[in-house]
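Q&A log
Question type: sequence-to-structure
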Amino acid sequence: GQAAREEESPFGAGCGGGGGFGGFGRGGSTAGPLVLPGTYTISLVVDGTTVDSRPLRVVADPEVTLTDAERRKMFDMAMEAHALQGRVVEVANALAPFNRQMAGLAKEIGGRTDVPADVKASFDALEKDRAAVAPKFAVPAGRGFGGGGGANESLVVRIGQAKNGLTGGLWPTETTLKAFEDAKRDVPKAVADANALFTRAAAVAQALAKYNLKLAAPAIVK
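Response status: OK
Response body:
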């Protein structure tokens, strides 16, 4: 069941977060932050009906020397990072099939003589925009990536690493705090750029459809 704190908390201890890519290895898990110490109600829910509910008290780790104010501050930052991560993962999930479609269409359009030059030019411009946006939402292969080289551009990696530093049980380092502030600045703009790309894709898809070329434009990410 899902833990719900008497003082409202949107995530239970260690509950799944954004879904999609699951765990990111050292790049950062999508699981939600651990709950703060306090009294919670755990419920057994079957087919949408609460069968049983019982109280659960979560106590602080005595070896973690943080004040209540520091714990609350870290929790609030971790929750904000978790929300940002959810938006990044949603865009990354939408981009993955879109990237494959664009690669396939590029080959197909190149061999077509019945597609007008202006339609090809619109597709080429869309591909240029996609190539600029995609690296920001890249998901490195494997579970052992640490964020080196080109991975530094990936917000999937950067926000995951920032969230890891905010959920480690110790007050975050200056590096973690900077990564968090950078993500707060960069994620909204990157998501806006992705949504602009998806809007342009819808227009290009209509033009391509006249020549029996199919392109499914991703939905806008809220």
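Response note: The first strand starts at residue 3 and ends at 5.
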